[in-house]
Amino acid sequence: MKTVIGRRFHLTHTIQGVRRLLVRNGWSCQVPARRAVERNDEAVAGWVKEVWPCAEDSRR
C-alpha cells in the first residue's frame, strides 16, 4: 500500500503512517463475512485431529 500511495500521489509515508491513515478513514483488516459453501467440516475436523498435532510438534 505504501508503494501504491507513493506512485499515485508522489508522497512518502511509513508503514505505520499508512495504517493510521487507513484506520482514520474507516478501513480495517479484511475478514471474511462467512465461511465458504464448499467447506467440509468433517474433513477439517479430521485434519485437526490427525495432521495438526504432527505439524505443531515439528515446529518445536
Number of helices in the DSSP assignment: 3
Structural class: mainly alpha
Supply Rg: 20 Å
Which stretches are poorly predicted, pLDDT < 50 over at least 5 residues? Answer: none
**What proportion of the residues form beta strands (DSSP E)?**
under 5%
Detailed description of the structure:
- With 60 residues, this protein is mainly alpha-helical.
- The chain is 62% helix and 0% strand.
- It contains 3 helices and no strands.
- It has helices at residues 2-9, 15-24, 41-59.
- The radius of gyration is 20 Å and the shape is elongated.
List the helices and strands and how they pair.
Blueprint: H1 2-9, H2 15-24, H3 41-59
What is the gist of this entry?
Helices cover 62% and strands 0% of the residues. With 60 residues, the protein is mostly helical.
Descriptive labels:
elongated, 60 residues, 0% strand, mainly alpha
